[in-house]
TrEMBL record:
The lineage of its organism: Eukaryota, Fungi, Dikarya, Ascomycota, Pezizomycotina. It comes from Lithohypha guttulata. This is Biogenesis of lysosome-related organelles complex 1 subunit KXD1. Transmembrane segments: none annotated. Residues 47-64 have a biased composition (Polar residues). Residues 86-171 form the KxDL domain.
Amino acid sequence: MAATLTRHHGSYARPQKTLPIAMPSTKTPSAYSRPVSRVALEPPELSDTSTVYSSRRSGGTLSDISDEYESRLPGGIDVMDELSERMNTVFDPMKMDRSIARQAQTSGELNAKQRELADLQAQMQRRIKKTRVNFDTTLSNVEEARSDLKYSKEKIAAMKARAMKEDPDAYESARKSRHSRR
């Protein structure tokens, strides 16, 4: 349904002849084993000057156009009933039921896996939090041990200096005896 448009101000699109709606071909494979048939009814042929265009020019409304179209349909045939009847004869509900059941089962399995992943993620977060607390505790213990070692080292150096200052001969003999035991 292509319409030619011009850029001139005040001109309207001139509708061209419309083609019937293309239904899926029976040559293409479908999800069902039976081919989809075409609807036997085709829209009425329109003349080169479109009904819509002539209705617009004459000031007709949408209901006028609809009445004119419906008057061209073959009498006594309801398109929706006809389409519904054809779908019921072509459509196999068992295949649809099986695929819906399979989809529901797959969806349930997917939801279970998502819940399992959420539980595992929560467990991992708890473990990370616990590990972080342990790490922080260990870091503070290491810092405390370093400060204790530094304090002890300074105390030992001060005691050595005082012992060497007070009695250098005794300090030297003690140092020699300590090295001789090694």
